[in-house]
Amino acid sequence: MVTVLKLGGSVITDKNTPETVDTRALAAAADALMSVSEPLVIVHGGGSFGHVHAAEHGISTTVGTTNWDGIYAVHAAMKRLNTAVLDVLHDRSIPAVPVHPLSVAERDRDGTLSLPVSSIDRLLKEGAVPVLHGDVIAHEEHGATVLSGDEVVTHVATGLSADRIGICSTVPGVLDDEDNVIEQIYSYDDVEAYLGGSESTDVSGGMAGKVKTLLSLGAPATIFGPEQLQPFLDGEAVGTYIDGSQ
Amino acid sequence: MVTVLKLGGSVITDKNTPETVDTRALAAAADALMSVSEPLVIVHGGGSFGHVHAAEHGISTTVGTTNWDGIYAVHAAMKRLNTAVLDVLHDRSIPAVPVHPLSVAERDRDGTLSLPVSSIDRLLKEGAVPVLHGDVIAHEEHGATVLSGDEVVTHVATGLSADRIGICSTVPGVLDDEDNVIEQIYSYDDVEAYLGGSESTDVSGGMAGKVKTLLSLGAPATIFGPEQLQPFLDGEAVGTYIDGSQ
């Protein structure tokens, strides 16, 4: 059973201080991961490492740059965070291996992402835990654009036919209009009243788009807060369970 | 015209001192690269960064390990050298971008290498200079094994249909029995007398295997010493020209 786990950048970094790891939160996450014995892919966000540099160089998922010094600066910052994550995992004897999207992914003119997963699949089968991250990648006629951690999760989960997806962020799940966690979502109709119509763009911090994307995957996804990571890994029901594959 | 250039590990590092860049040699190579305006892929070897760690953990191109701490140590050392190379190139405004083989390549049970080049191709077309290196990669049923810089050159040159290949090492070319540089090689028959029969293994420091591999590519390759890098890039005839595609 292959699990793809997103560790939000806001979980493992101090978003208010440039390039600062939240060492306590990262250690807690790593402690929880020690219990995992089945195939696991980790994807972490950029937090205070990626976003500062991306903003400085005016790069987003759609707006690119051919300033390769700037691209290299964003990538190098993401690698510093990735190395911090890897080091904490290795301290706990988790067989973590870095996989950098810039090395393997690219977008065509229409923004369609190509991210071959053969190396990730092989690493998993050999017993390693690949650790990917949000990054900058080559984009046809745009130089390079940002690849978000969420996009990595979606494409890697699909490419590997993952069995479950975990999204560990600073929110405890998808919230209704009284800020209660919605336990299960099987179609967008279940949450349209809270997140906006199916045509709406991201009115609630990107949650509408996130839910739509997760509903479109072939495997169930769960959105939960950091304190729910261990129970999620143990197979317990936590946060919001999203499954559009029924 | 796409050029794939190998910078030997023995050229850019001090092979006798662990993890030591030959800063003067690296700067000279980077200075020469400033003149390049056409698509260029750089591949560097491990030198005193990769080999020490690989030997310590008992890893080679055929002998693997599932000690992921060791694999991570070898990879991290290669990345330190790669960062040193990238930094020197960026100092000279060369639009260099790192591409790490561990992220993109893997071997099957028979040792056959898979190395998708879509990301490298896109980077090239967007005007970047991808910089790859020898590395450790996942290998079916072996954990991870070493991927040599020479293997990267061969596969990337083939995958990109490169127009020319440059091998910059510490030898000035392929030598005959009087240590004179052989100027041109169009078939193995031309050098069998010096390098051994076609069935021979690497009797002269790997040169026999290297020549055979380069003859099998669809593009001409040139082997030359560091002081010939600038003339090679300028299109002059230097070292040994190897072309088996006639």
TrEMBL record, chains A, B:
<feature type="binding site">
    <location>
        <begin position="6"/>
        <end position="10"/>
    </location>
    <ligand>
        <name>ATP</name>
    </ligand>
</feature>
<feature type="binding site">
    <location>
        <position position="206"/>
    </location>
    <ligand>
        <name>ATP</name>
    </ligand>
</feature>
<keyword id="KW-0808">Transferase</keyword>
<protein>
    <recommendedName>
        <fullName>Isopentenyl phosphate kinase</fullName>
        <ecNumber>2.7.4.26</ecNumber>
    </recommendedName>
</protein>
<comment type="function">
    <text>Catalyzes the phosphorylation of isopentenyl phosphate (IP) to isopentenyl diphosphate (IPP). Functions in an alternate mevalonate (MVA) pathway leading to IPP, a key precursor for the biosynthesis of isoprenoid compounds such as archaeal membrane lipids.</text>
</comment>
<dbReference type="GO" id="GO:0005829">
    <property type="term" value="C:cytosol"/>
</dbReference>
<feature type="binding site">
    <location>
        <position position="46"/>
    </location>
    <ligand>
        <name>ATP</name>
    </ligand>
</feature>
<feature type="binding site">
    <location>
        <position position="47"/>
    </location>
    <ligand>
        <name>ATP</name>
    </ligand>
</feature>
<dbReference type="GO" id="GO:0102043">
    <property type="term" value="F:isopentenyl phosphate kinase activity"/>
</dbReference>
<dbReference type="InterPro" id="IPR036393">
    <property type="entry name" value="AceGlu_kinase-like_sf"/>
</dbReference>
<feature type="binding site">
    <location>
        <position position="149"/>
    </location>
    <ligand>
        <name>substrate</name>
    </ligand>
</feature>
<keyword id="KW-0418">Kinase</keyword>
<dbReference type="GO" id="GO:0016301">
    <property type="term" value="F:kinase activity"/>
</dbReference>
<dbReference type="InterPro" id="IPR001048">
    <property type="entry name" value="Asp/Glu/Uridylate_kinase"/>
</dbReference>
<comment type="similarity">
    <text>Belongs to the isopentenyl phosphate kinase family.</text>
</comment>
<dbReference type="Pfam" id="PF00696">
    <property type="entry name" value="AA_kinase"/>
</dbReference>
<dbReference type="InterPro" id="IPR024192">
    <property type="entry name" value="Fosfomycin_R_FomA-type"/>
</dbReference>
<feature type="domain" description="Aspartate/glutamate/uridylate kinase">
    <location>
        <begin position="1"/>
        <end position="215"/>
    </location>
</feature>
<feature type="site" description="Transition state stabilizer">
    <location>
        <position position="15"/>
    </location>
</feature>
<keyword id="KW-0414">Isoprene biosynthesis</keyword>
<dbReference type="GO" id="GO:0016114">
    <property type="term" value="P:terpenoid biosynthetic process"/>
</dbReference>
<keyword id="KW-0547">Nucleotide-binding</keyword>
<keyword id="KW-0067">ATP-binding</keyword>
<dbReference type="GO" id="GO:0005524">
    <property type="term" value="F:ATP binding"/>
</dbReference>
<comment type="subunit">
    <text>Homodimer.</text>
</comment>
<feature type="binding site">
    <location>
        <position position="210"/>
    </location>
    <ligand>
        <name>ATP</name>
    </ligand>
</feature>
<feature type="binding site">
    <location>
        <position position="51"/>
    </location>
    <ligand>
        <name>substrate</name>
    </ligand>
</feature>
